[in-house]
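User: Some background: our group keeps a shared notebook of sequences we're curious about, and every so often someone picks one and asks for a predicted structure to add to the entry. Today it's my turn. The entry only has the sequence so far, pasted here. Could you supply the structure so I can complete it?
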Amino acid sequence: MDETVAEYIRRTVLKIPRDEIKMMLQKWDFLSEAQLQTVNFHQIKDNISQEVVQLCEENSADIKQAAVLDIIYNHIYQNKRMWSVYQMKKTGEELEYFDLTDFKKKFKRRLRSALKNVTITFREYEDNAIWIRVAWGTPYRQPNQYKPSYVVYHSQTPYVFISASVLKSNLPLLCQALIVASNYHEIREMELRSHSLNSLKDIVFKRYSQNFPTYCPKPLQGKTVEPESVDLRIIHENKSEKERIQRVNQEVFGNGPQPILQFAQYKLETMFKSSPEMDVLDKKEPFRCLVKFSSPHLLESLKSLAPAGMADAPLSPLLTCITQKARNYFRIREKKGLFPDSFVSP
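Assistant: Of course. Here's the predicted structure to add to the notebook entry:
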C-alpha cells in the first residue's frame, strides 16, 4: 500500500469519535469482521489508527477505498461542511430514464478530459442520493485528498448540493461535468447556503410547512373592555398584542421548526419613485440591488424578530419569502433570458 494512502487512512480514522470507529469501519466493508475483531477499540485513537492501517496494508488498500471511507464519514457528519444549492435546467420538458452507470461514465469522462490528475469516487444511498467525492490535482501534481469537493445529486430532480473545495477555480469544471452527465443544459447557484444539508433539501423539495404570506393583515376582533384602571388596560393591551403577534407569526412561518439556513441572497429590482417636479431621473431605469442575509439560523432569527419587539408583525414578504424567492429566481431569469452567472453545456 502506498505511503500516502496509509497516512490518509490514518488521519481519517483519527477524525472519527472513538466509540464510532468500529461502526464506520463496518459500513466501509473493506475489512472483514474477523479482521475487525483483532482491533482493540478501547485504546487511544492513535493506536487504533495504526492497527487499522496495518490491516489495510494486508488488504492492499488504494486511494479509492480510502476515499469511500471519507465519504462515509462526511455522510454521517455532513453538517461539518458548508453546502450550496444548484439548480439545473433542460432545454425541453421531456423526462428521461436515469441510468446510474451511464451517469458515472459521462461524469468521469467529462472531468478527466479537462483534468487528468483527479480522483473521483461515487457512493449511492437509499434515498436516491448519489454522493460524489472529487479530489483535485493539477497537470503536474497528484490530487490533494485533503481538500476534496463533495456533490450530492438526487436522480430525477434538477437539484444538486455542492460542498466545494477551497480550490474555487475547479467549480466550473465540476458544474460542466454534472450537466453533461445528467443530460441538462444549464446550471446555476440558487443563493442558499447552510451547514445543514437536510434543511436545504427540505427547502428545495418543499418538505416543510412554511405558509408564505399572501394576505393582508387581519383587523383585531377583540371585545370591548371596560378598564378598571390604567394598569389593567396596559396589561390587556400587551396580552392582546402578544397573542396577535403569535397568531400572525404562526400563519407566516407555520408550526414546525424552520430549516437551518445560514446564508441567502437574491436580486431586487424596483422603480425609483419621486415627485414629478423633482425630475431626479431622465430615464425611468429600475433600481437594482443585491440583498444578502446571513445568520447561524437565519429563518428562526427572522421568526423571532416580531416576538422580540424588533420588528412589526407581520414581517415584510421580502423577509418571509426568502426560500420561495430563491426557488423562483431561476424561473424568473429564464423568462428574461438572463444567465450571466450560469454554466452552460457546450
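Suggested note for the entry: The longest strand covers residues 186-194. The chain has three domains: 3-78, 83-205, 245-274+285-333.
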